[in-house]
Amino acid sequence: MASEADQVVGIYQRHADAWSRDRGDELREKPWLDRFLALLPPRPTVLDIGCGNGAPIARYLVEQQCRMTGVDAASAMIARCRDRFPEHEWLVADMRAVALHRRFDGIVAWNSLFHLPAEDQRQMFTTFGDHAAPGAAVMFTSGPAAGEQVGTYRGEPLYHASLDLDEYRALLHDNGFDVATQVVEDPSCGRHTIWLAQRT
Questions:
Q1: This model's pTM is above 0.85
Q2: CB contact at 8 A, 113 and 121
Q3: What are the GO BP annotations of this UniProt entry (predicted)?
């Protein structure tokens, strides 16, 4: 499925307008974002990995006085972030190559990490560790079990992958994070499998 994985960025680039409309402004993630914010200091710095168009997740974090740095490989998505929130930092970059040489109070990778193949996902936990300040929170979504799946978006194949849940837990531990909360297929949040961990 390597070829499908390589197409993910292009799909979001080509369909940025449609994705913005389809995603909409409904914030089902609010309870989880509030749990994430509760672990952060006032006016925290937050790194949003795979930030998309900045709405509604980054928008909510901005409203909660977060100082945002967003990264996405689709320049069309980053352009929308820059238009919406010009006072924050938005970078066009492959998440696998992020090396900002600074640390953040929080890191979010919502519905982004799972577009990477398994080995690339494993490497991202080093990236989390490299960018996490002492006590930082990290929150991300995964699949409910190990495997690869190819769905569709606007008629194009859209790749997803997941590691085993025990492996995610081990990777967090090995990179200095303790799991604070973890729910598999949360029925209150679109059946997302969600991880919230904190740097020890």
A1: yes
A2: yes
A3: methylation
The stretches in the chain having pLDDT less than 70 are: 1-2
Q: Which residues of 43-71 are buried (b: 16+ CB within 10 A; e: fewer)?
A: ebbbbbbbbbbbbbbbbbbbebebebbbb
Residue 35 — φ and ψ, nearest 5°? -65, -45
Helix (H, G, I), strand (E, B) or coil at 32: helix
DSSP class of residue 166?
Answer: H
What pLDDT sits at residue 3?
83
Number of Cβ within a 10 Å radius of residue 126: 12
65 SS3 class: coil
* Dihedral-angle region of residue 158 (phi above 0 means left; psi in -120 to 50 means alpha; beta otherwise): beta
| Helical residues (DSSP H) of the chain, grouped into ranges | 2-6, 8-14, 16-23, 30-38, 57-63, 75-84, 118-131, 165-174
Q: Which two tokens stand for residue 43?
A: 């006016």
Q: What angle do CA 102, 104, 81 make, to 5 degrees?
A: 95
The Cα 191–Cα 157 span in angstroms is 21
Q: What Å distances lie between residue 33 and 7, 59, 64, 118, 137, CA to CA?
A: 29, 11, 10, 25, 11
Domains, the chain, with CATH or none: 2-199 (3.40.50.150)
Give the Cα separation of 180 and 172 in Å (integer): 11
Is residue 177 within 8 A of residue 199, CB to CB? The reply is: yes
